[in-house]
Design a protein that fits this description.
Order of helices and strands: HEHEHEHEHEHEHHEHEHHEHHEHH
Shape: globular
Distance between the termini: 53 Å
Bound molecules: ligand F0G
Number of strands: 10
Strand content: 5-15%
Helix content: 40-55%
């Protein structure tokens, strides 16, 4: 039997987990790397443009990669409860993996500012949901304060095991392409994921990074080189929540892409290191540009991601246009979460496109013929 049972069993040697730690898994990882055809043709891009669709993880986002490792380690250390602040996806993953492990999840979310599907996930998996009258950054501060005394393990990406799990997406990409892409584009919120990808790509060339430092010299793991180059890392933010563009925390972050509505990223130094070491860059895009890209991807390629996720492709297309991303290169954009988590956003003006007719053959035929004309 050769059943895929999740990324811990698959990449065990490349993770700093004790051999006896039992994996808490939902079969996460192995997400499709989809080559885009229609959009590149329309813009005359002759390179290879891929999306890594992380929305197809068990709870619908890339957070599952980090959560399987963080919860496995927390249970191994004897924790009976985990806690996180979240804009929605981390709380969904924490709730599901805690349920799987038979422990309690406490999740702090900004009241009224998370997509309904994500809230539903936290509720259905039985997490203790604490809505705070503040934003993600307030939640993050409170989690750190509370965890000082309460017997709970933090599973936000300040937990180094989270980034360890998330780095495996880079492994999958290198294995599938046979090499690293020339550019890797990501949405940036709390900045854990860009740091994790950079660690993953670096380990594939046999190098450590600041993100792997907590484990260097201690719980060593395998970093054997399997390829010889790393991509340029491009991190994209929503203009209303773009601390990396401002060079300082943003006090009142605002964007429709609620997943990345973050003003004070916890992995600040790690993300700057990824940008500098890779000769990469940060950029920002308006809510309108982000939503237009979400729609473009759905209409032209059949891939439905959430708004925050579309920020990566939004940036890539802009940088292809200006030539900052070189013609003929290989580009991977991470689509961090599934569009189904947040249907409200597309239905805001989607409802007006629906056709309403009596339940009669003639009326339906007429509706069809109008569209085909
Ligand atoms: N895309 C989505 C869909 C996200 O949920 C997040 C982060 C990001 C991008 C940004 O990733 O924080 O590693 O830079 N969501 C967190 C959460 C903050 O609570 O679910 P990052």
């Amino acid at each position: 039997m050769n059943r895929y049972t999740g990324l811990i069993e698959h990449y065990r040697k490349r993770l700093p987990l004790a051999p006896e730690a039992r994996a808490v898994s939902l079969g996460e990882g192995r997400t499709p790397l989809i080559r885009l055809h229609n959009i590149p043709r329309q813009i005359g891009f002759e390179g290879e443009l891929y999306v890594k669709f992380e929305g197809l993880n068990p709870t619908g986002s890339f957070k599952d990669r980090g959560m399987t490792v963080a919860v496995t380690q927390a249970v191994h250390e004897g924790s009976r409860a985990i806690i996180c602040a979240s804009t929605g996806n981390t709380s969904a993953a924490a709730a599901a993996y805690a349920a799987r492990a038979g422990i309690t999840a406490f999740v702090l979310i900004p009241e009224g500012k998370i997509a309904l599907g994500k809230l539903a996930q936290a509720v259905v998996h039985g997490a203790v949901v604490v809505q705070i009258q503040g934003n993600f950054d307030d939640g993050m501060r409170l989690v750190k304060e509370v965890a000082e005394t309460a017997p709970v393990a933090i599973v936000n990406s300040i937990n180094p095991y989270r980034l360890q799990g998330q780095k495996t997406a880079a492994f999958e990409i290198v294995e599938e392409l046979g090499r690293a892409p020339d550019y890797h584009c990501l949405p940036v919120g709390n900045a854990g994921n860009i740091s994790a990808y950079w660690m993953g790509y670096s380990e594939m060339v046999g190098l450590s990074t600041a993100a792997s430092a907590p484990f260097d010299g201690g719980a060593g793991y395998d970093k054997t080189a399997v390829t010889d180059r790393r991509p340029v890392m491009a991190g994209y933010q929503a203009a209303g929540a773009a601390p990396f563009l401002r060079g300082a925390p943003v006090e009142h972050p605002e964007t429709v892409a609620t997943a990345i509505r973050i003003g004070n990223p916890q992995s600040w130094d790690l993300a700057w290191a990824a940008q500098k070491d890779s000769n990469g860059w940060f950029d920002e895009f308006s809510d309108e540009e982000i939503l237009a890209t979400q729609k473009l991807l759905a209409r032209e390629e059949g891939v439905f991601c959430e708004p925050a996720s579309a920020t990566s492709l939004c940036g890539a297309l802009a940088d292809i246009k200006t030539g900052k991303i070189k013609p003929g290169s290989t580009v991977v954009c991470t689509l961090t979460g599934n569009g189904l988590k947040d249907p409200d956003i597309v239905m805001k003006d989607g409802l007006k496109d629906l056709i309403r007719v009596p339940a009669e053959r003639g009326a339906v035929e007429q509706a069809l013929l109008q569209r085909l004309a």
